[in-house]
Amino acid sequence: MGTRVLTLLDAGLIAFTLIAIALIVLVALRPGLTAARGGKVLAFIALFISPVVATWIGTTNHLEHSKTTGFCLSCHEMEPYGRSLRIADGDYLPGGHFQNNRVPREQACYTCHTTYTMFGDVQAKMHGMQHVFVHYLGTIPENLELYNPYSNRECLHCHEGARSFEEMEDHADVRQELASGDTSCLECHDLVHEVRNLGELEMWEGKTE
Amino acid sequence: MGREDGVTTESLYKQLQLSGVLVATGLIVEVVTLYWAHPLAFVAFIVLGGTLVAAGMLLYLYSIVSH
Hints:
By secondary structure, chain A is mostly helical. Helices cover 53% and strands 0% of the residues of chain A. In chain A, helix 1 runs antiparallel to helix 2 (37-65). Chain A starts with 7 loop residues before the first helix and ends in a 29-residue tail after the last helix. Chain B is built from 2 helices and no strands. Chain B has helices at 2-35, 39-65.
């Protein structure tokens, strides 16, 4: 079972939750305290306010953690996609972005797949739950594919407005088509994860931490 | 009348204790999932921890409005 490196926020949340549990134990062991006004307030804080706060912060914490590259790669199905971030040839988009810090390495997957599963619409979230189900109880498909064609929005939310993008003549010719999605960025930049040929490609051995 | 009050208070205390057990168990589950680096941690956090906490809170609210 993999464990997480806890941040200061995690430690604060754990401390808060442990205090809340201590208050709950106090109320449960001495319910007579609630006969007095102060005891009623204590019970309300212990059994209502603190669980709401702890669950709210915990949910935010889990959502933030689910953006990390380590989270995505914690399922073995994603392992080849993680390795593809180390393809040495910079023409391969994921590796080129990851190795040159064009995307934050600790959130590499999420930066280019912002609407995937947890952070997408309701249907995407349901797909995320389906992935967990299939991971444990189903048959994992040999070829993993995106549900929808890769959206230009994922590229343009960083590249649009960038000088390197705006001043390139090839882009000027298809600016409207790229914005509307009629032309995919991947029609020209078509070297992506390439998980089927990883064994034949040279890998970058540099450290990322 | 006094006996009825005693029974009611005892019932309130039992409900408070049960809600305390539910909420505390849910919070323990939630804390444990913070240490776990796996997508299933979030599912456990919401489905198991969240359900226990919500059940405990609802029982607590029911107990204070019904007594």
